[in-house]
Structures are given as C-alpha cells and as structure tokens.
Design a protein that fits this description.
With about 500 residues, the protein is mainly beta. Helix content is about 10%, strand content about 45%. Strand 3 and strand 4 form a beta hairpin. The longest helix is centred in the N-terminal third of the chain and has 31 residues. It is globular and about 100 Å long.
C-alpha cells in the first residue's frame, strides 16, 4: 500500500502521456480532440491531488508512504530491548501507519515452508531408530502491532501450522488458527523505564539455553503470563521479573505447571565484558514416580552469564545450578557452557571460526532417591547441540567447532562438528526436546556419537531467504551398547518469506 508513490506515478504518467500525445499530433483536425483529452487528464490529476491532500490531513498517508521499504527482520530469533532480555518483536520496527486519534499500526508476517528427511529418526517415540521420516511442513503468521496511545501498545499475531497432506483431502478444513501473540504493553508505569506486559508473549533470554523462542520448530514457544521490567533509558543495567502458566485448565483437572523468574543484566562492567544473572523457579503439580516414590516437582535454577568481545574476538560463558525436587527425588545438578569465536570482517569471504564446550550433569545412580540430571527448561537447543536435534543441555558433554564463510554478501556457508558424550552412562540420552530417547545402562559406553552439519543460507531478496542443509550423525558405542542402531542422516530445504 504505497499510496504516496502511487499518486506520484499517476501524476507523472498523466503529464508524460499528455505531452507525448500532443507532440505526435500530425493533423490539424486532431488538435481539438487531443486538447480535450489533455483537459480530462488534467482534471483527473487535480482530483488525485485533492484526494491525497485529504488523506494527508487525516493523518493516514504520512507513514503509509514508507510501508514496505524497511529491510527484512534479522535471521535471529528475537530482538532484545537490552543486551539480553527479549521479546521477538520485529513488528515494532516496521514502518507505522498513522491512524485517527493519534494511533499507529504496523503489519508484518511470514510464510515458511520446509522439507525434511531423516533416516533413521531417533526419538523418544522411536528410540531404536527403526523408521525414517520425510515430510513437508509450513507456518503462516500475520502480526498487528497497534500503538493505542503514548505508552500503551497492543500486539496481536495469528499463526497457522500444518504438514502438507495432514488434512487427508483437498476439500478438508480440519486445521485451525492459533494465537501466537496477544498482549498489552504499558510503558513508563509508575516511573520512566518501567514496563509491564500482560498476555501471550515470546521471550528470549541470553543464548536461549534455558528460556528461548524455539523458532526452528514451526509453532515456536509462547508464554502465557506477565513481565514487569525496569530498563532505564540512559543506563546499561536492567531487570525483568516475569512468570508464565505453562499448563492448566479452568476446572483444575489437569495439574498446573508454571514458573517465575528474575533475570537481570549489569551491562558492560568492563570493556568487552557483560554480566547477567538469573533465578528461575519452576513448579509442576503433576505427580509422577521418581526413583523411590511419587511426588511433585519444584526446583530453582540459579545462574550467571558473562559475554562480550573486542576487535575480532567474541565469547560467551554460562553456568547454572539446580536444586529442589523432581518428582520425589532430591535434585542437585549443574551445567556450563564456554564458546568463543573469531571473525575477520576485512578478509575475503569474511571467514569465521567457532569453538565451544558444553557440559550438563547426569544421574549416576537411579536407585538412591537423588538425581543429578540437569533439567531442561524452555530452551532453543537446535542451535547449540547440532542441527539434527539429537542432544540437549542434559547429561551431555559436547565439544564443538565450526567454520563459516560468505562468498557473497547474501550467501553464507557453514560447517560444524560436534563430539557428543554422555556425562554419565546411567543418566540416559536426551534429545533436543528434553525427552529421554534411551535410559542409561550400567557398563555402557559414554560415547554417544559425532555429528557433522553442513548448511548454506541465501538471502535472495530483502524478503526471501533460502536454506539448505545436511547433517550426518555417526553413532557411537552407547548406541550399540543400549539396543543397537546405526548412523543417521538429516536433510532439509527451506524457503522463508518475511513481509
């Protein structure tokens, strides 16, 4: 809806057409007819100019002229209001259409389609990897971001997720829309810098190892809850207090699961050094059997993250400790991550080298009523433990490295390698979803396997990105020691349009 440009084009086209027609007249008897046509064109142009002036006076046209001229939102899975706290809020960056009563609106959306082939498909439903999978799935999103008045904003986003052919017929209509986002945002509550958000939201904190958006999965993650934040405009420090109800029903038939969290950042305490810390409390009232008895779950995750970089180098480190109860078991577990990167922007191909180490404890004895298995919360594991999604930040040791290059500004190639071992052979194997693929076994090897990931991304236009990748998982001795199975292949093709 580029109204301004449309008016400009019509005006110019009208005058050019009129001059051209007048200039090629060759017969005197045609002059009167041409003059009449020219007068009609002038009348139409003046009418369009008046219409434009009326729209400008109503406040509609000013922002609409730039609609569609902004670049595509970044490939990252969220945009942070500070160095870490985030709501994937790319719509707020789109050009806004001015509406009556001082309101403004931005509209954005996306269409994403991906084909996947996995052979075999190791999962909690198929721990032996006896089946292969190939399917095409897609998601469609449309978001409306309305600034109702100063410091009051409403965000509404609808989403459709489906697999090709899952409705069973060309006339079927069994799938439905879902609410991806729907929340109210109040800025400068009580005092400047205090923000309150209520409703269904998307949150990203840190590297998404604990709380993330999981955008690789079509539906992604959403959080039904609140967030109260303090983000002073001219200060680096910030703090968020937030919570969500993950599972519940109106009749209390289904036991509830919820969490509360405090996440804070100190900003850059030294050149190239940023510090964040958090406390997350999770409660699940669904009783389940532990090692010796049944019980509920409630535990704390306490951690810190230090990250930054200077010149060519960047790094991130994180440590988290968990304590409480999982079912009837006493929980005491920890996890850590250390990653570093080197990017040479001025060199040909803009090469980048990454190297990292991830570790999370596992349970060494499943009969003592204690558990040391680090509990998966709401992460985005896909980007940390291999694109085949065969590991999580739970009972794992992952040594990984990678290289990437950009032969063109819009094209990026990457190769990544993961050496995967279990922290304890009795702790079991967990996939990226956090579900246990196989239980542990006394005497089994800790060698889970190695994964090699190849990917190429091509930003064909400002709006359209193409992605292709292949991952090869080389099964380790743990696979053969606990039921058998072979190597696994994962191939995918994706088209992603944002507007």
């Amino acid at each position: 809806m580029r109204i301004g440009r449309s008016f400009g084009f019509l005006t110019a086209a009208g005058w050019v057409l009129a001059i051209t027609v007048a200039g090629v007249a060759v017969a005197d008897e045609d002059k009167e007819k041409l003059q009449g046509e020219l007068e009609e064109l002038r009348t139409e142009v003046e009418s369009l100019r008046k219409w434009r002036a009326d729209l400008e006076a109503s406040g509609v046209l000013g922002a609409a002229e730039t609609l569609g001229e902004a670049g595509e939102a970044g490939e990252s899975e969220g945009d942070a209001p500070s160095s870490a706290a985030a709501d994937d809020d790319s719509a707020s960056r789109e050009p806004r259409i001015r509406l009556p009563n001082s309101m403004s609106l931005s509209v954005s959306g996306e269409l994403r389609t991906r084909f996947e082939y996995r052979d075999p498909n190791y999962s909690a439903l198929d721990p032996s990897g006896t089946r292969s999978l190939d399917f095409t799935h897609m998601r469609s999103r449309l978001r409306f971001d309305l600034e109702v008045e100063e410091d009051i904003r409403a965000v509404f986003e609808i989403q459709d997720v489906r697999t090709w052919g899952d409705e069973g017929a060309t006339t079927a209509d069994s799938e439905g829309l879902d609410l991806k986002r729907g929340y109210i945002e109040l800025d400068n509550v009580v005092e400047d810098g205090v923000k309150l958000e209520l409703g269904r939201q998307v949150w990203i904190y840190g590297d998404e190892r604990l709380i993330g958006a999981l955008e690789w999965v079509d539906q992604g993650r959403t959080y039904d809850g609140f967030r109260l934040g303090y983000h002073p405009d001219e200060e680096d420090y910030w703090v968020d207090f937030f919570g969500a109800r993950v599972r519940d029903d109106a009749f209390d038939i289904v036991p509830a699961q919820d969490f509360l969290a405090v996440y804070a950042g100190l900003g850059e305490v030294e050149p190239g050094v940023n510090v964040e810390g958090y406390v997350i409390y999770l409660r699940d009232q669904m009783r389940a059997f532990g090692e010796l008895d049944s019980g509920n779950t409630q535990f704390y995750t306490i951690g810190a993250r230090v990250f930054g970089g200077q010149d060519l180098f960047d790094y991130t480190t994180e440590f988290a400790y968990q304590t409480g109860d999982v079912n009837s078991d006493d929980l005491s577990a920890y996890a850590m991550a250390l990653e570093g990167g080197l990017t040479i922007e001025e060199a040909p191909l803009t090469p980048r080298l990454d190297i990292g180490f991830d570790y999370a404890t596992g349970d060494e004895d499943n009969t003592d009523g204690d558990t040391e298995t680090f509990q998966v919360l709401f992460p985005t594991n896909h980007k940390h433990f291999g694109y085949a999604d065969l590991a999580a930040w739970s009972n794992i040791l992952d040594l990984h490295g990678g290289v990437s290059a950009k032969p063109h500004d819009d094209v990026r190639f990457s190769i990544d390698f993961h050496y995967l071992r279990l922290a304890d052979e009795m702790g079991g194997w967990f996939s990226a979803s956090g579900a246990q693929v196989r239980p542990g076994q006394q005497g089994a090897s800790k060698d889970l396997g190695n994964e090699l990931d190849f990917a190429v991304e091509w930003q064909t236009t400002e709006s359209l990105a193409l992605l292709a990748g292949y991952s090869r998982f080389l099964a380790g001795d743990f696979i053969s020691d606990t039921g058998g199975g072979g190597d696994s292949d994962f191939f995918y093709l994706q088209a992603h349009l944002r507007f």
